[in-house]
Design brief:
Chain B: GO terms for molecular function: L-isoleucine transmembrane transporter activity; L-leucine transmembrane transporter activity; L-phenylalanine transmembrane transporter activity; L-valine transmembrane transporter activity. The structure holds two protein chains of two kinds. Chain A is mostly helical. Helix content of chain A is 69%, strand content 4%. By secondary structure, chain B is of the alpha+beta class. Classes of the chains: A mainly alpha, B alpha+beta.
């Protein structure tokens, strides 16, 4: 019983912590891409990596101010979106999917390579760049605080608080944008690109703007993540995370402003609960060691996410909040 | 320039190390480097997975191309303060492993005087390494067997070309199914890499678990791969098509399937990499302009034979013609009396069997790993896109070009970023000729 309560508490912490903010932001960006515009971006994690490393490299390697680092990260994501969109946005959805996933994997391999390690720290990554941000916290970040039965460090609380504020602001922004004429054009592109073109709109330009906007939001997610962990390592940005973000988006409901937020909280709660619960069961001997060892549990989350993605898309593509008519998954 | 020497190190800019010398027999150095790359990538992929499970160990191999593995060299490990931790001798494979009491800095030194005749250490005879918690930390020593300094750039280019051909043919074998599945059903199957992994793993299990030689094991794995492909089609994709699931939704489903299978495989198989058994010598044979291990030669021959058979089948047999007809225009094929569902089932079985064979060939050169298929998937996509999505011959031509390009690119870029070159090629193709070499304009939308 105590284990169960503990699993609840740990899962709750994970669902409210900066990891949830990270996936919520990734998914909000994907919502702009996929939910509203119908762009199949499978390289969202690359935007997050550039955002995170924008700060890390600027501060740790170039000795710049933290906020300049944030700016560098944003500029880097914009540049990536432009470079990626230029060749691929004219093509069909699956080409964009292949190109984006290839870019994300290629960038990660490049960042972790020996030749890049002078700038990116290679497989060791970079650290000690979030001091300026953490010192802004109005409370003592060295102390630990008890929230809902779990211990949070002051720094974690501060990053999570700022992160959720950022999520709220961006949700507001997305909401405002999507009810503006600009947002209606995006949704129209999702439904019927040719019709929009016939109305004299420059579809390519709108898609590009959508790609940049969603990419920057994903980049902000990466910043929250590296600030939260205090280190930036290329291997934190595995492309499986992009698919986790898709699971978050589709679970919450694509093309809904709050879908990604609800999805992130629920999904992180579920996978952390499964994680902690399984570990407890293994430690108590309920699950024999031969069947599943404690080290395997870390992989269970991806198995769950994969299964969840398949079941959701087959049985409930609109997720919790979505509108089935609006989730036109056959859009370009 | 150093000659290939102590390995199991981090993948580095080993360009100098892959230049073969004229005399002596060069082992499949390139293959080994590729393997190192894959293995080292994997180590980092598993971050919380296996890393925390083991104690800290320092490992390494002492060998050169001419002398082979060097046995009986004393390796001493000391802490940063100079206290000796342990002293071991290398085994018959030239390998050593020393368990250390915890994370931290250690000095590893070898006894230079006990090295065999003609082999000298280039550089220091001791190395300082930092061992992270729970890691096996590789350490390498530069050894020179006197065969250095005479490989010319041309020879190296030919060597890389031959190896690129082997790699490209392997990609082609795996990718034919991917392209035909796309052509016949419109599905962009992101779970195709897992077909490759499962084939390699199945063969590995039959090979090492049941003690069957690799050739029959590979054939059994191909049958298993065909069965798994059929299971995919009958258990998942045919019902989904019947429900009218859209292509983009199906694409995301295939990603879910890929994640599910890949991490399930990691749980069942573990994060390590294992070789096949009973392969015989892995020494390279000198063919004048290039050197090739017998395994690589067999790999190339099998690839060519199988691909020719596939081409003949597509060109001459009834089912092959039906496949091309369905890929070209599904409705027209259906209305001219072709049983489309049966054709698609055969495509899946063929794709599964070929992917399994590709997996075995990849496992032969790079060992068997849980994520080997996913690593290959992006290169398969690059090959298929280059050749033209949906065409069988396009997949063939494109894959070979990608394989050669990836290997040849190590002439100018470091070895550990060579896949990046392949992925860059993919994006360049999309800019210049998105329909690929053999694709038709109408397909790209």
């Amino acid at each position: 019983m105590g284990d169960l309560l503990n699993a609840f508490a740990v899962a709750g912490k994970s669902a409210l912590g900066f990891q949830a903010v990270f996936f919520a932001l990734l998914a909000i960006g994907l919502n702009v891409h996929f939910g509203y515009t119908g762009l199949l971006n499978f390289g969202q994690i690359a935007f997050a990596m550039l955002g995170g490393f924008g700060i890390a490299i600027s501060v740790s390697q170039w000795g710049l101010n933290f906020w300049v680092g944030v700016l560098v990260g944003i500029v880097a994501t914009v540049v990536l979106a432009l470079l990626l969109g230029l060749p691929t946005l004219r093509l069909r959805a699956d080409y964009l999917a292949i190109a984006t996933i290839a870019t994300a994997e290629g960038l990660r391999l490049l960042f972790r390579s020996v030749s890049a390690s002078e700038v990116t720290g290679g497989t060791r990554g970079l650290s000690a760049f979030n001091g300026d941000f953490v010192s802004l916290a109005p409370w003592d970040t060295g102390q630990r605080y008890s929230v809902l039965g779990t211990r949070w460090s002051g720094g974690e609380l501060w990053v999570a608080l700022v992160g959720w504020l950022l999520v709220a602001l961006l949700c507001l922004l997305v909401w405002l944008l999507m009810r503006s004429p600009w947002g209606r054009v995006l949704k129209a592109i999702r439904e019927d690109e040719d019709a929009v073109r016939a109305l004299g709109k420059n579809v390519y330009l709108y898609k590009m703007q959508s790609l940049v906007l969603g990419g920057v939001i994903g980049g902000l997610g990466g910043m929250v993540y590296v600030i939260g962990t205090g280190a930036a390592n290329p291997d934190q940005f595995q492309n499986a995370n992009t698919f986790l973000a898709y699971a978050v988006l589709i679970l919450g409901g694509a093309a809904r402003v709050l879908g990604p937020v609800v999805g992130a909280i629920i999904l992180l709660f579920v996978i952390q609960f499964a994680d902690t619960g399984l570990r407890a069961l293994i430690n108590n001997g309920v699950i024999p060691e031969g069947l599943l060892s404690a080290t395997d549990v870390a992989q269970i989350r991806f198995v769950l996410v994969g299964l969840g993605l398949m079941l959701l898309l087959v049985f409930r593509p609109q997720g919790i909040f979505g509108d089935r008519r609006e989730v036109m998954l056959d859009a370009r | 320039m150093r000659h290939p020497s102590a390995t199991t190190g981090r993948p580095g800019p080993h360009r100098s190390a892959i230049r073969p010398g004229p005399g002596g027999v060069v082992r499949g150095v390139l293959l080994r480097l590729l393997l190192l790359l894959v293995a080292a990538t994997g180590l980092a992929l598993l971050v919380p997975g296996i890393a925390s499970a083991e104690g800290e160990t320092i490992v390494g191999t002492l060998q050169t191309s001419r002398s082979g593995p060097i046995e009986g060299i004393e390796v001493t490990v000391a802490t940063a303060d100079g206290d000796e931790v342990d002293s071991v001798e290398t085994d018959e494979e030239g390998k050593f492993a020393v368990e250390v009491p915890g994370a931290g800095q250690y000095t590893v030194s070898i006894d230079a005087d006990s090295l065999p005749e003609g082999v000298v250490i280039t550089g220091e005879d001791s190395r300082t390494v930092t061992v992270d918690a729970g890691r096996r930390q590789p350490v390498q020593f530069g050894l020179n067997d006197g065969s250095q300094g005479s490989g010319s750039g041309n020879i190296q280019a030919i060597q890389l070309l031959v190896d690129g051909l082997r790699f490209g043919l392997l990609i082609a074998i795996s990718a034919v199914g991917l392209s035909l599945i796309f052509g016949t059903t419109g599905l962009t199957n992101f779970a195709h890499g897992e077909l490759v992994t499962i084939g390699a793993l199945f063969a590995w299990w039959v090979n090492t678990g049941l003690g069957v030689p690799l050739l029959p094991a590979a054939i059994i794995a191909m049958i298993g791969g065909a069965a798994f492909g059929a299971l995919n089609e009958l258990g998942l994709w045919r019902p989904l098509r019947r429900r009218g699931t859209g292509l983009v939704a199906a694409l995301v489903v295939s990603i879910g399937l890929s994640l599910l299978l890949r991490y399930l495989i990691q749980i069942l198989y573990g994060g390590g990499s294992n070789p096949y058994q009973g392969l015989g010598t892995s020494r390279a044979v000198d063919y004048g302009l290039f050197r090739l291990t017998n395994q690589s030669l067999v790999s190339i021959v099998i690839s060519v034979v199988v691909l020719v058979l596939v081409a003949v089948m597509l060109q001459r047999t009834k089912i092959g013609k039906a496949m091309r007809a369905v890929a070209d225009n599904r409705d027209l094929a259906a209305s001219s009396g072709i049983n489309v569902n049966r054709v698609i089932l055969v495509v899946w079985m063929m794709g599964g069997a070929l992917a399994a064979l590709g997996g075995v060939l990849l496992g032969l050169s790079d060992q068997v790993r849980w994520d080997m298929g996913f690593q290959l998937l992006l290169l398969m996509f690059a090959g298929v896109t280059l050749g033209g999505l949906g065409t069988a011959y396009g997949a063939l031509v494109g894959s070979v070009i990608v394989g050669v390009f990836v290997q040849m690119s190590t002439l100018v870029i470091p070895n550990d970023v060579k896949y990046v070159g392949g992925l860059l090629l993919l994006i360049v193709i999309l800019v210049i000729r998105p329909q690929g070499i053999l694709g038709s304009r109408a397909r790209i939308g």
